[in-house]
Every structure is written in C-alpha cells, then in structure tokens.
Design brief:
single chain, 710 residues, alpha/beta, Rossmann fold, Arc Repressor Mutant, subunit A, seven-stranded parallel β-sheet, six-stranded parallel β-sheet, 35 helices, binds adenosine-5'-diphosphate, binds zinc ion
Length: 710
C-alpha cells in the first residue's frame, strides 16, 4: 500500500482517515466517506483501484471534470479513461475494447450512462473491483444537489451484490447520510466522518467599507495567486471584472447570464492559469477541482453558512494557507431580507430568514470563526482559539488616536477645508502630485506627517471621525471635508480621541510571508510548468501542484534521486518532468550561487516590516513622554531587547524618533562606520569590531536609522 502510494502519487504518508478507509475497501467492504473538500477523497478509491484486480468504476455527475481527472491519473502513470457524451461513437467503442482487454484500471462515467441497460450488460462482462460514487449526496432529495439520475444507482447492489461500493461526499447532514446509505443499500458498511476543520483556511470578516479598494490593496502583493471573488449580482460581477482588468489584473467574469460557451471558456482559462481571478456569482464553482485557489472573497454577504462554507471551501484544496475574506455590511443584510420577503411560500421564507440570521450571527460574533463554523456543522471543537481567523489573530481594539486625528484635522484646516478625503490623505502622506504642488500644499506643516499609516488606514480614520462628528463631508458635486465644532478642543486643547485600531490589510498574508521557500525560483518553476502544460493541453496543476513546486524551491534538489523525494513526484512524473525541472533548478542555483541543501528565507537582507501593533504603539507613547529605554522596559514589564525591537520598527516605519537620546552622536558615528565596513546584515562582525563599549542594542538602533535613511 505504501509502495503504491509512493510510486504512483509520490506521497509518503496518508491524510487523516485515508489509510483506514483504503484498508476497509481492500477488505471489499462497503464504506461511506464524509470528508471536506481538500480532505483527499479521491485517493480513497484510486489507491484501492490500483491494488485490487479489475477495473474501478467511478460515478461522477460532473462530465466537464472527467477529462481533467483522467489526465491527472494518466500523468501519474495510472491507466484511466472516461466515457461520456463528449466522445464520438467510435471513441466510446475503442474505450470499451480497452476495458474488455483489461487495460483500464479506473473508469469515470456519469450515472445516466451507467444505468443504461445496454451499458449495464456490457460492464457485467468486466471484472469490476469497486464502485466509487463521488458527490453521493446527489442521490438524496434532502440534499441541495438532488439529481434524479443518481436515484437509479440503487440497482447496483442488486446486479453486483459482491462488488464493494464506496460512497463519498463533502456535504451531508445526518439525514442525507442515512438516505445515501439506505438508497445504495450499503448495509453494514463502515461510516467515516472526517473533521470539517480546514486548518489552512484563514477566515476573515471585514466591514464592507470601500471593498473594491480593499481588494486592490489585498491583491497588490499577490498578482500571481489564483482567487475567486463572489458577488451577488451579475452586474457587480461585470463591473468588478472590468475594473480589475483595467487595473492590469487578469480577471474574467462568470455568471448565468453569459452563454455556456463563454462560461466554459472562462472557467477553463482560470483552471489553466491563463487568468488569475474569476469574478463570479455563486453559479461558479461546482466541480472546480483547482487545488491552488489561494483566496475566496465574498464581496457581498452570502445567504447562508452552508453556502459560505462551500464557497470558501474551494480555497486551498492543496493544504497550503489560503484566505477566505468576507465583506460584511448591514446594507447587504437588508437587501437579502428584502428579497426573502418577496417569497410566497411561508416555510421557505422562514427557512431563508433563519439561515440569514445564523450567518449574521457568525459575522457579528466575537468568537473564533472556526469554532462557530464547526459547531454549526455539529462538530465539537475543543480549542477556544484556532489561531487562524481574524477574531483569534486580530482582536479589535481601540487606541489613543489623538495624534492621527490631530494630523487629519490640522491638515483639513491648513488646506482651507476645500478638499476631499483622498486629497487630504495625499498631503498627509507627502505626495507631490501636480495639484498639491500647484496649491503649494507641499509646504504646509502637515505635509508628509502621515507616513506611519497606509492610505486605507487613513481613510478608515477619516470615516470614523465623520461618524463621530468631528468632521463632515459636505457639498454634493465634489464632497469636501469640513471641520465641526467638536474638533476644536482636539486641535487646541489636546482632547483625546479614541479610534478603532486600524486593521492591517496586509496582515492577512503575515503567515504566508514566513513560508520558507525561494520565491524567485518558485515563480520560475511556475512559468516552466505553464509552458509545458500549454504544450500538453492540460491544466498546470496536473503536472505538479504548487506544494511540490514550493518544496523544490525550498530544497533545491540537485539529482533525480533528490527530486524523487519531493511530495507529489511519483515514478511517472519523475521520468516525464524530472530532467527539465531539475535543469531549471540547477541552473538557477548556479546563477544565484546557492549552495543546495540549505533552506533560504526570502529576502533576508532587511527585517520584515510588520504592521505596527498596539504594543509598539505603547512604546511610542512612552518614548514621547521622554522615558529612557530602561524606564519603558520597566514600566511595561518587558525586556530591554523587546523595547529596542519596537524602536527599530518605529524608526523603519518613519516615526520621528531621535536616537540621540539613546546613543550619543560620537558613538553613532563609530557604529555607522563599522556598519559601512561590515554590512548591515549581520551584527556580530560589527560588534566584534567595536568591542565591549558598544552594546547590541545601540548597534541595532543605529542600523535601523541607517536603513531608513538609505
Ligand atoms: P477532495 O476530493 O476530498 O476535495 P482531493 O482528492 O482532490 O480532495 O485531494 C485534495 C488535495 O490533497 C489534492 O491536491 C491531492 O493531491 C492532495 N492529497 C490527497 N491525499 C494526499 C496525501 N496522502 N498526501 C499528500 N497530498 C495528498
Ligand atoms: Zn479562530
């Protein structure tokens, strides 16, 4: 079993439950498998198919997907085929002959064809090792995807009483599960229910506040990631797809208003990595097997937790960290309610309202998102905090925003209360665009004083100040910001203003940044993969999944022997793609002078800039009160080194911090000289040069200043 797993799939271990399930199937027992998307259901029948004598028949409702599934198996050297309506009569006959000769181990087929009397008769002449029924919830009228043709599968056990059946699904309530088992007559079969916890998915809910802008910010650093943006209406889909295109993103729309040809083409181009982004209504996604969807964004509020969970589930099937972002607004809630109230059927109406209420509860709540989701699906989750959702990672806090508010108010005042939000932010951030220069606003005192926050953070502050009544947007043609009476004491008497701690748009990718692999090599391997895929007319992921490319980019294999150890590299792929990928890696290592065997962190030169946290903010406050480092450390009960690292970050972020207070100018000068000689990367050589009169802390502070000034 392990040998076959390694040989054909290139995996060295099983996912949870896979091994037990495979063992049970090998004993020729019926089984029912409930596993979330990405749980690894396919392997549960593909591996037994290889180990058992005869052909395994996979029943799948998704004709469109069969070709890719079969291509994936063929790429692993597994003799597989499909029979469906996309084939001509003679092609079907040819495949039947191959089946008769025993040359096919796995056959994909749609249920309606399987149950044709003539076809049933044909397969009775074959040696069938196993029936695998994918998406088996389609058999149940109580599920959300009922397909009448699935019902007829209940004859399988009558005709083939001794052939084992494995039924698989990712969506089943207890009732649906019972229905599947009784319809298929899986008597006495074991039931395997995997946890629905998708550990690699990061659940994030953001207030819907200029969502398009937020999406742009989010996309900035992930131009090559695949993602889905779900919207409620066709019109929004079209608009966003068009805007993203105009912005230089490769994005395509998908909704029921497009012709089937356009829909298929757009979906295909997404799967083949010709475009990164699909903007879609919920019509999109059924049967999307793409393993490397890195984010799913809900631009509008979904209607139920089930729908939301299913849609977000399309992210990160390959187990790599992926983001699920939902933009929440009460306006959307009212919109959906409005539609629900137009329903005639009272039961339907009540059910829809209940589902919406549950979803709102999920969005509003301040408990761990994962915990709430799993509880909703009837699973006990023992952790209080999952550590991978916004509630766990970014508790909402307020902070003393007086300084930020003062900067905004003063900037509005000094520019004469004649400008809108973005202009004010541009001035704060020190832009010298034409308009600002013309108006001579590059010489007002607040010009450039607001570099510590991003544009969207300033927007959030300004909106909050509007809500709180400090300022007002007025004028209809061109809304300009005006000061209100309430702002006077803030400007003149230093009255405190508390604001919501800014959400860092980039925080979502915090973890991802820390993944240790060579990003440049990864991109190169990706483009190699894309070239080969286009030549072979298959989706890129069939050649290698991202996770395999990432492993290559972390370990730099130098021989076929090493290459074989990469997860996802089985014998067939080693033979077929080993050489060409290896060459790319070896060339790359030579060019960049990389000694293999070492895991390289991305861009080790500079400390990674992280969003300013509340704790850094507190250090800043104390700094401003003229505390020494020792005093700050003492008052906060933190180590001196921690405070120094806060100061380093503040300096790098452009806070006005004078290190003269901590390191005298003469020492600074000496340290700068030593840094110039030894480089900025490592502190030890600098310290050695300077001797015991200089501390690491002093060196760090000077280094931060030097880096900032570069
Ligand atoms: P499902 O059908 O349950 O959504 P898949 O069968 O498509 O899941 O598998 C999800 C992903 O996990 C695929 O990318 C697959 O290659 C990978 N995978 C499955 N089993 C293993 C394993 N034992 N080791 C490593 N990767 C696996
Ligand atoms: Zn959580």
């Amino acid at each position: 079993m392990y040998q076959t797993l390694q040989k054909y799939f290139g995996y060295t271990s099983f996912y949870p439950l896979q091994e037990d399930i495979v063992r049970e199937v090998l004993k020729q027992k019926d089984v029912f498998v409930l596993m979330p998307t990405g749980g690894g259901k396919s392997l549960c029948y593909q591996l037994p198919a290889l180990l058992l004598e005869g052909v395994t028949i996979v029943i799948s409702p998704l004709i469109a997907l069969m070709k890719d599934q079969v291509d994936g198996l063929l790429a692993n050297g597994i003799p597989a085929a499909f029979i469906n309506s996309s084939l001509s009569y003679s092609e079907i006959e040819a495949r039947k002959r191959n089946l008769t000769k025993g040359e096919v181990k796995i056959l994909y087929i749609a249920p309606e064809r399987l149950v044709l009397p003539e076809f049933l008769q044909f397969i009775q002449s074959l040696r069938i090792s196993l029936f695998a029924i994918d998406e088996s919830h389609c058999i149940s009228e109580w599920g959300h995807d009922f397909r009448p043709e699935y019902r007829q599968l209940n004859i399988l056990k009558e005709i083939f009483p001794i052939v084992p059946v494995i039924a698989l699904t990712a969506t089943a309530t207890q009732a649906v599960q019972q229905d599947i088992i009784s319809q298929l007559k899986l008597s006495g079969g074991k039931v395997f229910r995997a946890s629905f916890n998708r550990k690699n998915l990061y659940y994030h809910i953001k207030p819907k506040d200029n969502p398009y802008h937020q999406i742009l910010t989010y996309l900035e650093n992930r131009k090559s990631d695949s993602g889905i943006i779900y919207c409620q209406s066709r019109k929004t889909v079209e608009n966003i797809a068009r805007s993203l295109q105009a912005q230089g993103y490769r994005a395509l729309p998908y909704h029921a208003g497009l012709t089937p040809e356009v829909r298929t083409e757009n979906q295909e181009r997404f799967i083949r990595d010709d475009v990164e982004i699909i903007v879609a209504t919920i019509a999109f996604g059924m049967g999307i097997d793409k393993p490397d969807v890195r984010y799913v964004i809900h631009y509008d509020l979904p209607k139920s937790i089930e729908g939301y969970y299913q849609e977000t589930g399309r992210a990160g099937r390959d187990g790599i960290k992926s983001d699920c972002i939902l933009f929440f607004s009460y306006a959307d809630k009212f919109k959906i309610e409005h539609f629900i109230h137009q329903k005639e059927d009272e039961d339907e109406k009540q059910a829809a309202l209940r589902q919406l209420r549950e979803l709102i509860h999920y969005c509003e709540g301040n408990v761990c998102r994962r915990r709430l989701l799993l509880t909703y699906f009837g699973e006990t989750y023992h952790e209080i905090h999952c550590g991978n959702c916004d509630v766990c990672l970014e508790p909402k806090e307020r902070f003393d925003g007086t300084i930020a508010a003062q900067k905004i108010l003063s900037c509005i005042y000094r520019t004469g209360e004649r400008f809108g939000i973005n202009y004010i932010i541009d001035v704060l951030q020190g832009s010298r665009n034409q308009k600002i220069v013309q108006n001579r606003h590059d010489s007002v005192k607040t010009h450039g004083s607001g570099k510590e926050y991003s544009k969207s953070q300033w927007q959030t502050f300004i909106r909050e100040l509007i809500q709180l009544g400090y300022i007002k947007l007025s004028g209809d043609k061109y809304p300009v910001l005006k000061l209100q009476e309430k702002s006077r004491p803030v400007l003149l008497q230093n009255e405190k203003v508390y604001l919501t701690k800014p959400e860092e748009p980039l925080q979502i990718q915090k973890d991802r940044k820390e993944e240790c692999y060579d990003h440049t090599l990864f991109e190169q391997l990706r483009s190699l993969r894309k070239t080969i895929a286009d030549k072979e007319l298959i989706p890129p992921y069939i050649i290698f999944h991202d996770i395999s490319l990432k492993e290559m980019s972390a370990h730099y294999p130098q021989s076929l022997h090493d290459f074989r150890k990469i997860s996802g590299v089985g014998e067939q792929k080693l033979q077929r793609y080993g050489e060409v990928f290896l060459k790319e890696i070896i060339d790359y290592c030579r060019r960049c002078n990389i000694k293999p065997g070492r895991i390289v962190h991305n861009n080790p030169e500079l400390p990674v800039q992280q969003p300013k946290t509340l704790t850094t903010q507190t250090t800043l406050e104390l700094y401003k009160q003229h505390c020494t480092i020792q005093e700050i450390a003492q008052r906060r009960g933190l180590a001196i080194s921690t405070i120094v690292s806060h100061l380093e970050r503040l300096i790098l972020e452009g806070e006005d911090i004078s290190i003269d207070r901590f390191v005298n100018p003469e020492k600074q000068h000496r340290i700068e000289q030593a840094l110039a000689e030894s480089g900025l990367k490592f502190l030890n050589p600098v310290k050695e040069k300077l001797g015991d009169d200089y501390s690491y802390e002093e060196i760090k502070l000077v280094r931060a200043k030097v880096i900032y000034e570069i």
